[in-house]
Write a structure and sequence with these properties.
The complex is a heterodimer of chains A (about 325) and B (about 200).
Chain A lengths: L9 H24 L3 H30 L1 H22 L7 H20 L3 H22 L6 H24 L12 H26 L14 H17 L8 H29 L14 H23 L2
Chain B lengths: L1 H14 L2 E3 L10 E5 L6 H8 L2 H4 L2 E6 H4 L3 H11 L2 E3 L10 H10 L3 E4 L19 H8 L4 E8 L1 H4 L13 E4 L11 H16 L1
Helix pairs in contact in B: 1-2, 6-7
Classes of the chains: A mainly alpha (about 325), B alpha/beta (about 200).
Chain lengths: ~325, ~200
């Protein structure tokens, strides 16, 4: 069932719309209030971020509403862009060219095709086992042993994070939860909503109350106050929206708590890679946010956890 | 032109080109873009980074023996890229590459030139020394500005000797235009032009 025709989704859609409208208004007010150069820069970034949110949410909802195929294509494109940013950032040598061709043009599409044909048994092991085995073989065949382990590990990591983990989000659409089969799009919206609202609230709480940094060398913007505030608000909002899920309110809260925490972990890990490479963002695709990977880092780590927990407890 | 724009659109999607415009000179300003060369895709990446209105006026200087070798390449070179064919062997008065470039300038075209001649094995600084053809060209048409351009990461998209490109984010950075100064020595000018291109890399 299309999420736009689904009465249960209406409060969430209205909620999202109101949050966006409210944040656009707040930015507009801040624009007149803050006069310092620092404040102006903040408002400019904030306004770019919120504009990008409007676009991202519109694209995501449109794709999800159109049904499975559009959603798969959207996430396949997301994976493609994220993997491209990741590979660009992590240097590799000429000898990896063959492996990279495989990663982009064979492994990535196949991973999503497996989802499209509902072959979940193979999907779950395709990248972690088969791609994991084949990439080093292909690299070895090109005959350069310099930094071999590091080179292959980088490509394997890219495939795992940018392709495999990301594709767990659309994989949710195929979960056969008894009595809920036609509503899985709601579950995908729940995951994306909780993860992203947790990110946003971490940012907001961090900016307002942030004092103690979690790991300043890895992510200067992540604070303990932001983490607690963000994860708690995501947990509460997740519990409030329990009726679009097959969960009880307390179960929805636990799920929201776990995926927010996992998402936080993803943000830290992807930041650590950026800091190691000495850059601030993965790219410049999304104004105000940075690259695609900067936006989906938390989804990467939250999606597989959410999929498997839901599958373990609710499918059968 | 439609074909070239379509290809450039695809390349922008494929390599997500990040570009830095240097100024807002009118599109009619005739210029010579001089760039580092480390990949077959350099020329397409540079064309993709230019606004369509400027792209229309630009002709890349490219090796005649390579581009005229097969009918397909020839068709692409003549009808899509509008290259100025540069002979690399058996130079005579009739096929003098400099004369061809000067003629292209006189017809109002802008040019893309890779003054290193061949491609680098891999993208690295410093780039190779510039060939002296650039000097002789500028000597004849000193009023035309040179735009130093640095193409980043194209060698990772398609390294020398490989056939399939992989998607890697490329960057195209333009520097402040330079000109041949009256009385400037050949070596000094070529070095200055080379440094100007290298400076764009940072």
């Amino acid at each position: 069932m299309s999420i736009f025709a689904d009465a249960a989704m209406v409060p969430m859609l209205i909620g999202i719309f109101c949050i966006l409208l409210l944040s656009s208004l707040v930015t507009l007010i801040l624009k007149f209030k803050l006069k310092s150069t620092e404040g102006k820069a903040l408002v400019e970034n904030l306004s770019a971020r919120i504009k990008a949110w409007w676009v991202m949410i519109a694209v995501f909802l449109a794709a999800t509403a159109t049904g499975g195929a559009a959603c798969l294509i959207l996430f396949a494109l997301t994976s493609f862009i994220a993997l491209r940013e990741y590979i660009t950032l992590t240097p590799n040598c000429r000898a990896d060219h063959g492996s990279l061709t495989w990663a982009f043009f064979v492994i990535l599409p196949l991973n999503y095709i497996l989802l499209a044909i509902h072959w979940y048994g193979l999907f779950v092991i395709f990248i972690p086992v088969y791609a994991f085995l084949w990439i080093p073989v292909r690299s070895a065949l090109s005959g350069d042993s310099k930094d071999f382990l590091a080179r292959t590990a980088k490509i394997q990591w890219g495939l795992m994070t940018c392709v495999y983990f990301v594709s767990y989000a659309p994989a949710i659409l195929g979960l056969a939860i008894p009595g809920y089969e036609t509503h899985t799009a709601r579950l995908l919206c729940f995951l994306v909503f909780v993860v992203q609202i947790s990110d946003v609230m971490q940012y907001v709480f961090g900016k307002l109350l942030g004092r103690h940094k979690v790991a300043p060398n890895i992510s200067p913007n992540k604070t303990v106050e932001g983490l607690i505030g963000g994860v708690l608000s995501a947990t509460i909002l997740g519990a409030l929206f329990y009726w679009i899920t097959p969960f009880q309110p307390w179960q929805a809260a636990v799920m929201a708590l776990l995926i927010s925490l996992s998402g936080f972990g993803g943000g830290m890990v992807m930041s650590a890679i950026k800091r190691d490479r000495g850059v601030k963002d993965y790219g410049s695709l999304i104004p105000g946010h940075g690259g695609m990977m900067d936006r989906i880092d938390s989804l990467c780590f939250a999606a597989p956890l959410f999929y498997h927990l839901t599958k373990y407890f609710y499918v059968h | 032109m439609i074909m070239l724009n379509a290809i450039c659109g695809f390349i922008r999607f494929f390599t997500g080109i990040e570009k830095q415009r240097f100024d807002n000179a009118p599109v009619t300003t005739q210029r010579i873009y001089i760039a580092n060369h480390s990949s077959h895709v350099d020329c397409m990446v540079l064309l993709s980074a230019l606004p369509a209105a400027i792209r229309r006026t630009v002709r890349p200087a490219a090796a005649e023996d390579y581009w005229m070798a097969t009918p397909l390449r020839r068709w692409f070179a003549v009808n899509v890229l509008h290259i100025v064919p540069i002979p690399r062997e058996k130079l005579t008065k009739a096929n003098n590459p400099i004369t061809r470039l000067v003629n292209a300038l006189d017809q109002g075209s802008s040019l893309i030139i890779f003054p290193e001649g061949g491609r680098q094995e891999k993208e690295q600084l410093p780039i190779q020394d510039f060939k002296c053809g650039l000097y002789h060209l500028c000597k004849q048409r000193p009023e035309v500005e040179l735009v130093p351009t640095y193409i980043g990461n194209a060698a990772r998209v398609l390294p020398k000797g490989k056939f399939l490109p992989v998607p890697i984010l490329c960057s195209v950075k333009f520097g402040q235009p330079i000109r041949l100064v009256q009385g400037e020595k050949k070596e000094d000018f070529l070095k200055r032009a080379q440094l100007a291109v290298e400076k764009c890399a940072s």
